[in-house]
Amino acid sequence: MLLRSRIAPTPSGYLHAGNAFNFLLTYHVVRQSGGSIRLRIDDLDTPRIRQEYITDVFDSLNWLGISWDEGPHTPEEHYRLYSQQLRLDRYHKYLDVLTATGKVFACSCSRQEIERNSRDGHYSGSCIGKGIPLDAPDTSLRIVIPDPCLVTIHDRMKGVVTVDLYRVMRHFVVRRRDGIPAYHLASLADDLDFHINCIVRGEDLLHSTAAQLYLASLLQEPVFSSARFYHHPLFADDDGRKLSKSAGSISLKHQRAAGMKPEMLSGLVASAIQQMQTPDQ
Question: What is the C-alpha separation between 115 and 137, in angstroms, rounded?
């Protein structure tokens, strides 16, 4: 099988070493098999997106020596041809298919209300059965998750993993209150439309993979379940904490300016590669 994967940064901050680790691992997995890579910049969350963050994506990939076969090669080309904002109609078509299953409901609860009424930190499903119109203003759309909802992931690094979505992502959002399709639906739509069959993610996104596999089953898109999934260990700081833009981790931009070389990450990537299962497992 010819692998088709993607590098999919979210430009809500400057990229960090954890992002670089994921990109390099993706690059290795795909290139060693002669496959292709698509650059996808996840820019649906417009209030958090800044021009300098998108520029940093290209600067960081070029510094790492990573090439890709599809997608933009400059910020201008991204905005003109590849932005997710240009694909909103496509995401809404997928949302229409989900709605036709009868599994979508409107929710008027605020984040504060959800936190106040939840016993376990998850949304209780209090709006299920209220009959709120799906086009009602200031509402999100959520997907009904049965109890239990067991999703099996055949992972090349962690083996067979079963996730109960009801316990970890109960009735998750598929369209935000502002009318924009949510990440899980948009990401799945992109992977389906661009025939992605190899997805390399951090192990913290196992639940996201399970959510997207469940959506794919409702959309009757079984090809997604046959993709190769690699959920790798997280790249941590000296104190063992996950690197993240929100946590203010040191950016690649800063590290490049301080003289860091991309080769410094190669040993960590090699270690992760050793954890991978062979392609026929």
Answer: 22
By C-alpha distance, which of 161, 92, 171 is closest to 125? 171
How does DSSP classify residue 231?
E
Distance from C-alpha of 193 to C-alpha of 173, rounded to nearest angstrom: 21
The answer to whether 34 and 248 are in contact (CB under 8 A) is no
Taking each helix axis as running N to C, give the angle between helix 206-218 and helix 183-193, from 0 to 180 degrees, rounded to the nearest 10.
70
Could you tell me the pTM of the whole model? 0.92
Torsion of CA 221, 225, 228, 233, to 10 degrees: 120
Q: Where are the beta strands (DSSP E) in the chain?
A: 4-7, 36-39, 104-107, 140-143, 150-155, 159-164, 173-175, 198-202, 228-232
Q: Is residue 38 within 8 Å of 69, Cβ to Cβ?
A: yes
Q: What share of the chain is helix, strand, coil (3-state, %, to 5)?
A: 40, 15, 40
pLDDT for position 196: 98
Distance between CA 232 and CA 230 in Å, rounded? Answer: 6
- Taking CA 229 as the corner, what is the angle to CA 156 and CA 225, rounded to the nearest 5 degrees? 120
Rg (CA), the chain: 19
Alpha-carbon span 193 to 84, nearest angstrom: 13
**Tell me: the pLDDT tens digits for 89-135?**
999 999 999 999 999 999 999 999 998 988 888 999 999 999 999 99
Three-class DSSP category at 224: helix
